[in-house]
Amino acid sequence: MEAWRTKQRIIKSLEERLGEEERKEARKDPHAKRRPRPCGLTIHTGVGCPLACAYCYIYDMGFPGAARPYRLSPLQMAYAVAVNPHVAVGPWGSLIAVGSVTEPFLPETRELALGYVKSIATHLGNPIQISTKMPPPTELAEVQKGLDVLISVTDTTGKLEPKAPPPLERLKAGAELMRRGISVTLFVRPIVPGVTDRDITRLLALAAELGYRRVVFGTLRVTKGIVARLRAFGVDVTPYVRELHERRQTPIRYPKEKFVAVARQMGFEVLPASCAANVVAHGQACALCRWGPCGDVKKLKVDVRDVEEYLEARGYKSVEVYVEGLKIRINKRLKPIDKIFLEQATRLPISEPAR
Questions:
Q1: C-alpha to C-alpha distance for 115 and 109, rounded to whole angstroms
Q2: pTM for this structure?
Q3: Where in the chain are all domains bearing CATH 3.20.20.70?
Q4: Range with the lowest mean pLDDT among 115-119, 161-165, 168-172, 246-250?
Q5: Helices (H) and strands (E) in the chain — how many of each?
Q6: Inter-residue contact 277 to 183 (CB < 8 Å)
Q7: Per residue in 190-200, pLDDT tens?
Q8: Are 338 and 315 in contact (CB under 8 A)?
Q9: Which residue, among 162, 166, 169, 212, has the nearest Cα to 187 in the 3D structure?
Q10: Which CATH architecture has domain 2-286?
Q11: 147 close to 183: Cβ distance less than 8 angstroms
Q12: Above 90 in pLDDT, residue 334?
């Protein structure tokens, strides 16, 4: 399979640039093993975050309130992603999402975050998206054609984000990136009842005035700790919560429909999830999850013989592959590692025989 051959070529090229100990460290790293979700693989530029947003989930996961840069060098990170057996590399490979257990553009992590996205773009070529509450650096304009930047804002006041830069500052910095040719998406996440809903028209109007034309709305997910922190800010979300746990996050019951309707009336393209913005910004398509399909699905072309050759090389006998609509059917049960890789490489779900 061409996607597999491309992966092996890239791995070999990176191995020639890294020393033995550097390779060993990268191969042991979680980025080299973690299964990507349909929305892609998350890249950690650091651990911990000092922004203290009331709704943030990382503190209940045990992450600290101070940030430290991630331990891998940019070249090691590209190598760790490349050797991950589940990940497809290349321009149509696994989606890459930067920004999860820390804010990527904190002073402590800014240069490393830039190094990571540049290294992945240069050596792997995978579609990259970055989520940030900091004003994104203008250097991003030089990273990758199609790069998507999510400017994360909950409302125009920033009342629930006491240590983050003001929302207007973030929005203006995103507008500057747009002027430099970068795709920038307004990321209204999370929607907080009593906060976001009171401000949504003003927020969208401000974003539209600055040139934003695309928006993603994200659901608030809560733990007992998040509910308590929100209450300390005068926000009670318990009427919208089914159940609460110490660490497991539960999405609140709060409809997005009215936000979507307002945004569309104001001329915004409303996308169903953050990964959809990554797909659309790169002019691609994906049909891996229930939120899609996203993008131009006519671009999702599968070479059946190519898939069969990959599976035969992986030891499967008498393989038959069919493409039915936006799904690939295979007459064999696959090992999880092969199923995930094929789905990542084709952007189509795999259907197997029942056990």
A1: 10
A2: 0.94
A3: 2-286
A4: 246-250
A5: 11, 16
A6: yes
A7: 999 999 999 99
A8: no
A9: 212
A10: Alpha-Beta Barrel (3.20)
A11: yes
A12: yes
Can you give the length of the chain in residues?
A: 355
Residues 131-160: pLDDT tens digits?
999 999 999 999 999 999 999 999 999 999
Report whether 331 contacts 304 (CB < 8 A).
Answer: no
Q: Can you give the pLDDT at residue 101?
A: 81
Torsion on CA atoms 89, 91, 92, 96, rounded to nearest 10:
70
Region of 232 on the Ramachandran plot (φ > 0 left; ψ -120 to 50 alpha; else beta): alpha
Among 318, 323, 332, 327, which residue's Cα sits nearest to residue 350? Answer: 327
State the residue for tokens 């597999």. Answer: 4
**For residue 273, is it left (φ>0), alpha (ψ between -120 and 50) or beta?**
beta
Exposed/middle/buried for 261, CB within 10 Å: 0-12, 13-18, 19+? exposed
Say which amino acid occupies 102: T
Residues 6+ apart with CB under 8 A from 155: 167, 192, 195, 196, 198, 199, 200, 203
Burial class (CB in 10 A: 0-12, 13-18, 19+), 293: middle
224's CB contacts (< 8 A; 6+ apart) are 60, 244, 245, 246
User: Which helix (H) or strand (E) segment is 295 a member of?
Assistant: strand 294-295
CA 78/CA 32 separation, integer angstroms: 10
